Amino acid sequence: MTKTDLLKKLAAQLTDALPSHLSTFKKDFEKNCQRILSRTFTKFDLVTREEFDTQTKVLLRSRKKLEELETHIKQLETLLKNKRHK
């Protein structure tokens, strides 16, 4: 779910919580609510779950590559050390 979809859904839920006899007020409230929520959430600098999951995968791949490189460096250092002792 994108940030925009989340905010629209949240604004709609807040609007639905209003009494039904305020129908003319509801549309303005929903529009204003969505605008206020959007501005507030932007200040929080939040990310969507999809963005978070994507970055988690990138981090895991980077961590794996780093571990592989560290292992390779250790192997090369061992080889170099063994050659010096011969």
UniProtKB/TrEMBL annotation:
Family to which the UniProt record says this protein belongs: Belongs to the UbiK family.
One GO BP: ubiquinone biosynthetic process
Keywords in alphabetical order: Coiled coil, Cytoplasm, Ubiquinone biosynthesis
Native organism: Aquicella lusitana
Cited function: Required for efficient ubiquinone (coenzyme Q) biosynthesis. UbiK is probably an accessory factor of Ubi enzymes and facilitates ubiquinone biosynthesis by acting as an assembly factor, a targeting factor, or both.
Pathway(s) annotated for this protein in UniProt: Cofactor biosynthesis; ubiquinone biosynthesis
Origin: domain of life: Bacteria
Annotated GO CC locations: cytosol
Ranges in coiled-coil conformation: 59-86
Compartment list: Cytoplasm
InterPro entries: UbiK
Protein name: Ubiquinone biosynthesis accessory factor UbiK
